[in-house]
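ARCHIVE RECORD
Type: protein–small molecule complex
Small molecule: magnesium ion
Source of inputs: curated submission
Record status: active
Notes field left blank by submitter.
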Amino acid sequence: MPTLVMKFGGTSVANLDRIRRAAKRVGVEVAKGYDVIVIVSAMSGKTNELVGWVNETSPLFDAREYDAVVSSGENVTAGLMALTLQEMDVPARSWQGWQVPLKTSSAHSQARIEEIGTENINAKFGEGMKVAVVAGFQGISEEGRITTLGRGGSDTTAVAFAAAFGAERCDIYTDVDGIYTTDPRICQKARKLDKIALEEMLELASLGAKVLQTRSVEMAMRHKVKLRVLSSFEEQSDEAGTLVCDEDEIMETNVVAGVAYSRDEAQMTLLSVADRPGIAATIFGKLSDAGVNVDMIVQDNSEDGRTNMTFSLPIDQVKRAETAMNEIRGADLNFDSLVVDSEVAKVSVVGIGMRSQSGVAAKMFKVLSDEGVNIKVITTSEIKISVLVDRKYMELAVQALHDAFELEKAS
Ligand code: ADP
Ligand code: ASP
Ligand code: MG
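STRUCTURE (tokenized, with ligand):
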């Protein structure tokens, strides 16, 4: 039998009615002759609630227990989805990560998938089971502890299952009807794309477009998984949603394919650091050891042998970064002071067309300057330009860039 993976995100399983609606979609695919692997998220809001409980109980929590708690939301929806399917006379059962087994690294709360055992589920398909409902976001470490894959990790579970079972396609059902030129919730003119290149989606995801977890896109690229994003709220045809595909499957695109933003950024500056060989290695080595994900970096010109070093980081890592920097403040790094700005956001434009067309950066900077938005830090790569701006200008910047690059129009 051909296999299909269908993933339902939090809003698509937010209550029993929605689970029933999702189960009906699954039933349609079963009727077409597929063996279906359904990956479910926790009900929307559940994971946040669980994270909150952990933080309240133990601010410096044991990450293994964090995972034990936070993974539980998916167990509930997996069981309920299996029951709903059974009520519809579709042979189904639920699987928690450890039962599959989905083996991961031991990096609790950020674990990486190492292996998915296909035997147990295939044996059940062989016995007539039509749907395996798998709890997303969770796995088991070598030590036998429950792990989780990072926020949004059910997307990665879904793509990994599609790769492991050689699925015909991996359908990600969510609360928007596809991938848009930017987040439709902050830009009314956002346009739904029929197709987007994997490379562009990878950049958009890593720059903040949470519609897909970055690692799910990486995995789809590596294992050549056919990936589609579509709505669980609408009647679907085979062409619905957005296909995330190789760039050569797309005829013509705009130079800029999309605009992404990341609201929860902070900027940290070490003022007056002694400018000598090795300071960058010392600073960023220490930050990396502390598990801080530094993104943009700027080093000022040196004056009298001293310089300022600025970098951006996720806002929830500021405390960790401050501690790390203060630890090497003395003899290693005698900087004057540490300045933190927690009111910044990152806005990025992404497009494969930038490889061959110049002037995108100049246009981006002009648009922002016309809107009176000050740029604090800039980084570029072959297919993206990112700027750090004051958070209060983030939405304005996204909308102005969407207008200026005429993303509401197809090329
Ligand atoms: P799920 O719970 O189904 O995993 P998420 O909330 O993780 O859903 O992701 C879907 C959300 O991603 C949308 O509601 C939308 O606000 C946001 N989003 C951000 N950027 C984009 C984009 N370019 N296209 C579509 N949705 C986007
Ligand atoms: N429930 C998890 C989260 O909210 C995983 C997911 O939904 O993808 O992050
Ligand atoms: Mg998600």
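CURATOR ANNOTATION: The longest strand covers residues 258-274.
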